[in-house]
Specification:
single chain, Phosphatase 2c, domain 1, 2 domains
Length: 203
């Protein structure tokens, strides 16, 4: 038994999307400034020492890389199961990663709420058996400039959970407390927006 997985976190003050991939099809990202879709991931020729990024359950020991990307307003990220890349084009050839990327590029700019049905419709129309014999899951994430507002009760509960996790981390063998990396962007950004903007200009 094994399973592929993608785990991500997004830190809004720095717009950093951190991705860890365990044998899953690589996500694709749309850059609003260039209007292009590209693979979101590390290059295939990256140095490897031992088993890395394998599906969960293949080996008891495997290292997992993580990489980050900065998303600008309007950028989209799409993650999907292998039913899409295993679908066939009109000529009967498997689409693969490049085929899905090509279809997205041909679709042009599509609003995020319509992206999934439009993409699945394009793939289904190319071959009669497409998307009918396997699980089909697609997730779209779009970066916006909208500021989230959280009720006071939610913020207080979040502080309580952080304090509890920090105290629990004192125990021998416990996980480290859930603090962000100690850099000016992560620490100063949420507290002093001006500091985050200054860091962004200098990056």
């Amino acid at each position: 038994m094994f399973a592929t997985a993608i785990v991500t976190t997004f830190f809004a003050p720095t717009r950093r999307l951190i991705v860890c991939n365990a044998g899953h099809p690589r996500p694709l990202t749309f850059r609003a400034d260039t209007r292009e879709w590209n693979v979101l991931g590390q290059s295939d020729d990256a140095p490897s020492a031992g088993p890395r990024n394998l599906p969960l359950g293949i080996l008891s020991v495997s290292d997992y890389d993580q990489f980050d990307n900065e998303l600008q307003e309007g950028d989209c990220v799409i993650a999907y199961t292998d039913a899409l890349i295993e679908s066939q084009d009109a000529d009967g050839e498997e689409l693969g990663e490049s085929g899905v990327q090509r279809i997205l590029q041909l679709m042009g700019e599509v609003d995020a709420p319509r992206l999934i049905p439009t993409l699945l419709g394009e793939i289904a129309d190319r071959f009669p058996e497409n998307l009918s014999g396997d699980d089909v899951t697609v997730l779209v994430v779009r970066a916006t400039s909208k500021q989230l507002r959280h009720p006071l009760g939610d913020r207080l509960r979040a502080i309580a959970r952080l304090i509890g996790a920090t105290i629990g981390a004192i125990r021998p063998g416990a996980e480290r407390p859930p603090f962000p990396d100690l850099n000016a962007a992560n620490i100063g950004g949420p507290i002093v927006p001006a500091l985050e903007r200054r860091w962004r200009k200098g990056a």
